[in-house]
């Protein structure tokens, strides 16, 4: 391995730092998230949280009902996955296992922040083990907690997790974050409808596209209905109409 300006050789192993202090395989995992061509956004208000993502059917022969990037983890928590589909399925399966194991041992549902922290710890361990690799996907989780109410968390391939008022992942992550920073104030008190409309408006703005109800997926938790659920196409259409009338 050369210690010159070139990075050649330092990207072959996940456990070796470059002279600049970088782990190239972890950086490549972040780039893999963008290969899906999707953008996902999460927004939290005073009493609710929602996630939205694009819904692209990869092939005309694929059954549309089997294509989804939003998953339920527990009764009151779920997530949207962005990135490599196989890696996403594996991470969701692990999240469900950890949540079920927690409920078996402690007798109550695993809180959303604990699920996110556990997945982040597992993801971080993949960056230290030579025979493993980081997952090429990013998880945005929403959930309802008895003490904290609606929550929003993001877990990345490096094993970092944090709570957010709004966040994004995918191809247009930078543009989405810039939009959300302008629209959402520090002490934002958005209600349930405003949370959904803000998420739709952000995705529509960064992609410069108007959506049909079948082209997006939206999931929601709120104090009014703490059960994690996906919005139906009829409900999405209602929100799109309200947004278009407002604009």
At a glance:
The chain has 247 residues and is of the alpha+beta class.
Task: Describe this structure as you would to a colleague.
- The protein has 247 residues and is of the alpha+beta class.
- The protein is built from six helices and ten strands, in the order H-E-E-E-E-H-H-E-E-E-E-H-H-E-E-H.
- The protein has helices spanning 24-33, 85-106, 112-125, 173-183, 192-207, 233-246; strands at residues 39-44, 48-54, 70-74, 77-83, 137-145, 149-155, 161-163, 166-170, 216-222, 229-230.
- It has a five-stranded antiparallel beta sheet.
- Helix 2 crosses helix 3 and helix 5 (192-207) crosses helix 6 (233-246).
- The longest helix is centred in the middle third of the chain and has 22 residues, at 85-106.
- The N and C termini lie far apart (57 Å).
- Residues 1-5 have low confidence and may be disordered.
Describe the structure using short key phrases.
five-stranded antiparallel β-sheet; globular; single chain; alpha+beta
């Amino acid at each position: 391995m050369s210690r010159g300006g070139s990075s050649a050789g330092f990207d072959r192993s996940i456990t070796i730092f470059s002279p600049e202090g970088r782990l190239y395989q972890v950086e490549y995992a972040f780039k893999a998230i963008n290969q899906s061509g999707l953008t996902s956004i999460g927004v939290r208000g005073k009493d609710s949280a929602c996630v939205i993502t694009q819904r692209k059917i990869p092939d005309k022969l694929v059954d549309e009902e089997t294509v989804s990037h939003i998953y339920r983890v527990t009764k009151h928590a779920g997530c949207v996955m962005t990135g490599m589909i196989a890696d996403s399925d594996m991470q969701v399966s692990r999240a469900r296992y950890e949540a079920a194991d927690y409920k078996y041992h402690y007798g109550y549902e695993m809180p959303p922040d604990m699920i996110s922290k556990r997945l982040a710890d597992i993801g971080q361990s993949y960056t230290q083990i030579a025979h493993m690799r980081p997952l090429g996907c990013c998880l945005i989780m929403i959930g309802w907690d008895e003490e904290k109410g609606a929550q929003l968390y993001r877990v990345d391939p490096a094993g970092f997790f944090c709570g957010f008022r709004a966040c994004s992942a995918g191809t247009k992550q930078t543009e989405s974050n810039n939009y959300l920073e302008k629209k959402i104030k520090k002490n934002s008190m958005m209600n349930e409808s405003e949370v959904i409309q803000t998420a739709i408006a952000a995705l529509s703005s960064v992609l410069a596209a108007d959506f049909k109800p079948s082209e997006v997926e939206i999931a929601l938790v709120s104090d009014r209905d703490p059960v994690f659920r996906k919005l139906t196409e009829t409900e999405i259409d209602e929100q799109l109409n309200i947004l278009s009338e407002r604009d």
